[in-house]
Design brief:
The protein is 25% helix and 27% strand. α2 packs parallel to α3. The chain has one domain: Survival protein SurE-like phosphatase/nucleotidase (Stationary-phase Survival Protein Sure Homolog, Chain: A). By secondary structure, the chain is of the alpha/beta class. The chain contains 6 helices and 11 strands. 41% of the residues are buried. The chain is globular and about 60 Å long. The chain starts with a strand and ends in a 7-residue tail after the last helix. The model has no long low-confidence stretch (mean pLDDT 94). The strands form 2 sheets. It has a 9-stranded mixed sheet with strand order 3-4-2-1-5-6-7-11-8, sandwiched between helices. Strands 9-10 form a two-stranded antiparallel sheet.
Length: 252
């Protein structure tokens, strides 16, 4: 199997290195990742400025491409120009911090996987709960096993998946739960501050939802210590409204 690996934490991220090592048990790995951290950039792409990239070497041999762009840039450029072959699988991660719930829409990690699925390639985003001392080896082994399990099913071909690993899963045996992404909004607070010149600025603050969602989602199952897998789709069309809207008699 030929695997394209990227991320949004940057090409020097230890999570990327740990996952690359484990994915080599599944096949040939080609790495193209942002030259600098690109967390939270979503699915942005570079098209108004040149897209620069550099071959990085270890022990005199090429090991990765560092791309001066977004995670989506990295995957698109790699598939179209840099890879010597079309990947059978695109993997993005391991991200430092969970990408669950509505965070999926902000995530550069997930965007890299979405870009791979644009090309009809099975694509998987992998994220791990943030920790000051993460066990990346354990997380990478979990990720490898889950990735291997996903691609082992014909139905996964060309599809998009989001995998999240809580810290507890790296410390104790656990299960994998296939669940939808949670839609509860969180992180709605800002702290107003002033700089030394007296100008106001705002700092985004993390805040949990006041009420837990009533159904099982990635958020609820991660809080219970389970690894979660969510099949995603980049088609944002709300098909249920199309037919009824044709009767709205909209005019311009």
């Amino acid at each position: 199997m030929r695997i394209l690996l990227s991320n949004d934490d940057g090409v020097y991220s230890p999570g990327l290195a740990a996952l690359a090592q484990q994915l080599r048990h599944l096949g040939e790995v080609f790495v193209a990742a942002p030259a600098t951290e690109q967390s939270g950039v979503g699915h942005s792409i570079t098209y108004l400025t040149p897209l620069l990239c550099k071959s990085l070497k270890r022990d005199g041999r090429h090991w990765a491409w560092a791309v001066e762009g977004s995670p989506a840039d990295c995957v698109k450029l790699a598939i179209v120009e840099l890879c010597p072959w079309k990947p059978d699988l695109v993997v993005s991660g391991i991200n430092s911090g969970l990408n669950a719930g509505i965070n999926v829409l902000y995530s550069g990690t997930v965007a890299a996987a979405i870009e791979g699925s644009f090309f009809g390639i099975t694509s998987i985003a992998v994220s791990m709960e943030h920790s000051e001392d993460p066990d990346l080896l354990a997380a990478a082994v979990i990720a490898r096993n889950v990735v291997d399990g996903i691609v082992g099913h014909e139905e996964s071909r060309g599809k998009l998946f989001n995998v999240n690993i809580p810290t507890r899963a790296t410390e104790h045996p656990t299960e994998v739960k296939v669940v939808p992404m949670g839609l509860t909004q969180y992180g709605r607070r800002y702290e107003k501050r002033s700089d030394p010149s007296g100008r106001d600025y705002y700092w985004a603050l993390w805040s949990e939802p006041q009420e837990p969602p009533p159904q099982e989602t990635d958020l609820t199952q991660l809080s219970e210590g389970f690894v979660t897998v969510t099949p995603l789709d980049f088609d944002l069309t709300r098909y249920g409204l199309i037919e009824s809207m044709r009767d709205w008699n909209l005019k311009c």
